[in-house]
Structures are given as structure tokens and as C-alpha cells.
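thought: user wants a sequence for this fold. calling inverse folding tool.
action: design(structure=
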């Protein structure tokens, strides 16, 4: 029995003591040190609709969903936590179409959430857009032609891609950042240049030689 135990353990001892096994045991993946950063609630996030939203054509209605994206990086402690271009969703919460008598279209939207690695980050905030009315034109037509002012309509409300809309985070968000990650470098404002000092160069006054009006003797003799 003892002989059998030794026979089994001998190959294991050789394996453990082999250089290949020792090298494999020495090479272990290093665990990167992480630091924690908390993005506080009510942090501003600038978003924009991915497509133009408009009351024209009645394509939108109350309850319609639309895609949105962040316009700028959201930073905290020198680190980018919500990158520019992060997508999300919003909702058309209220709208009216343009109408007679110069009535303009109006639309109100809310910002719902952002998608970060499959997790929906809730947002808060609303924005209201109104089209330009034609009230002045309506008054002019009403004075000139009475009931024909009913044919004058306002403009549709439109929110275009690239328009800056301000949403805010709802809850504190915890991010893990590698301790070795470089922070975003912030530039230093250069000192203002000293104003140039202009030196006036004096201009010499012109010297005027007086001209005598008295006649010379030769001129007097010729005159006689």
C-alpha cells in the first residue's frame, strides 16, 4: 500500500517541480486597481433628437416616442462618465397643430432615459417648442377682408437635430474607473496680452517766409 502511494505521488512531485509548471504558476493575471466616482443626481445632460420633430403633417401625436443622443461628454472629477453620442429615448407629451387665425403649432417633449451598456439611466426634464404665429397678418387680413382672416395660419413647431435640449439625471450613478486611467487635461487660460502703447510723433510746423511787398529800386526805375 505504501509502495502504491509513493508510485502515485512521484510523478506529481516531478510535475510540480518542473520549470514549465513553475512558470505557469508564476504568471497570473494582475487585477487592475479601480476607483469609484459618483455622478450626483440632477446632473445636466445636453441632448438632441436624432431626427427632426415637427407638428407639420400630423406624423407625431401625444405619446409618440423619439430617439435622442447626448451632444457633449458628461464629466466628473476629470473623467468622462457619459460619453458624447450616448443614445436614449424621449416622449412627445403634448402637442397642437397650427390652425386658422394665425394659430401656431406647439409641442412639448420629455426626456426619458439613456442607454448605457444595456442599462437604462432615467432622465428628467421637459422642453416646449412653439411655431411662429401670424397674428399680425391675421389682423391685417381681418381689417381688409373680414372673415378671410380664417385662411391665415401660423407655423408648425419644429425641434431640429443639433438643437440643445437640457435634461438631468434622476439618481446617483456609481462608476468604476481604473486608477491608472489618465484624466482629461484641462488647458490654462493664457494671460491677456499687454495693450500696445502708441507714441505720437510730433510733426514740425511748416516755416513760412514772409514776402515783402515793397518795390525794389530797379523795379521802381522801370515803373517810371
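)
observation: tool returned 224 residues.
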Amino acid at each position: 500500500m505504501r509502495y502504491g502511494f509513493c508510485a502515485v505521488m512521484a510523478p506529481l512531485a516531478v510535475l510540480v517541480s518542473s520549470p514549465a509548471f513553475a512558470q505557469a504558476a508564476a504568471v497570473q493575471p494582475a487585477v487592475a486597481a479601480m476607483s469609484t466616482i459618483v455622478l450626483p443626481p440632477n446632473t445636466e445632460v445636453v441632448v438632441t433628437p436624432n431626427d427632426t420633430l415637427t407638428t407639420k403633417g400630423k406624423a407625431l401625436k401625444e405619446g409618440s416616442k423619439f430617439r435622442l443622443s447626448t451632444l457633449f461628454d458628461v464629466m466628473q472629477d476629470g473623467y468622462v462618465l457619459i460619453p458624447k453620442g450616448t443614445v436614449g429615448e424621449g416622449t412627445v407629451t403634448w402637442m397642437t397643430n397650427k390652425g386658422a387665425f394665425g394659430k401656431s403649432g406647439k409641442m412639448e417633449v420629455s426626456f426619458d432615459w439613456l442607454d448605457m451598456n444595456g442599462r437604462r439611466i432615467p432622465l428628467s426634464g421637459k422642453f416646449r417648442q412653439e411655431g411662429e404665429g401670424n397674428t399680425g397678418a391675421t389682423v391685417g387680413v381681418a381689417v381688409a377682408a373680414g372673415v378671410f382672416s380664417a385662411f391665415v395660419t401660423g407655423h408648425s413647431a419644429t425641434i431640429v437635430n443639433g438643437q440643445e435640449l437640457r435634461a438631468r439625471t434622476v439618481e446617483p450613478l456609481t462608476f468604476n474607473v481604473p486608477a491608472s486611467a489618465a484624466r482629461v487635461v484641462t488647458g490654462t487660460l493664457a494671460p491677456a496680452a499687454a495693450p500696445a502703447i502708441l507714441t505720437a510723433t510730433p510733426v514740425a510746423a511748416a516755416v513760412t517766409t514772409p514776402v515783402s511787398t515793397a518795390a525794389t529800386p530797379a523795379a521802381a526805375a522801370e515803373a517810371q
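thought: summarizing for user.
answer: Here is the designed sequence. The helical segments are 2-17, 19-26, 135-145, 217-223.
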